[in-house]
């Protein structure tokens, strides 16, 4: 297994569409998509354009967004997951979203992919000069919180984000 982070590309359309479809109709953390998602060419084209705009630090992001590097987690030519690295925190991200959001498709979980992807995401945070990053996960997502803890995450708190439609979240800081 060779896990890499790649920018969204039409070259991997079929694998991306299969990965998105595997998640079903719910939210896909780190994908840059909002549910429900139709994994078609138009959706991908819009995602690529949005990802390029948000990654361009020469252009101010919209008022409710921050600069963001959107990646697909790939193993060879297969999209196995998603990772979103936000350069800064706005109010919503400081409470619920964090600097890094990620997910791995169900058929590829428990292979170390999330750990490898998170390590690469933390390397990107170091590249832009962050001293620490906030990462959140659902309180009952043991796989995710163990991944964050193995990466050096220190639990800040458990936060009720029900008002935001998210439920209970574990919020971790990782020093870089």
TrEMBL record:
Record-level Gene Ontology MF annotations: acyltransferase activity
UniProt xrefs under PROSITE patterns: GNAT
Tagged with keyword Transferase: yes
Domain of life per record: Bacteria
Alphabetically ordered keywords of this record: Acyltransferase, Transferase
Residue ranges annotated for the N-acetyltransferase domain, each copy included: 32-176
Top EC class for this record: transferase
EC number: 2.3.1.-
Designated name of the protein: GNAT family N-acetyltransferase
Record organism: Microbacterium galbinum
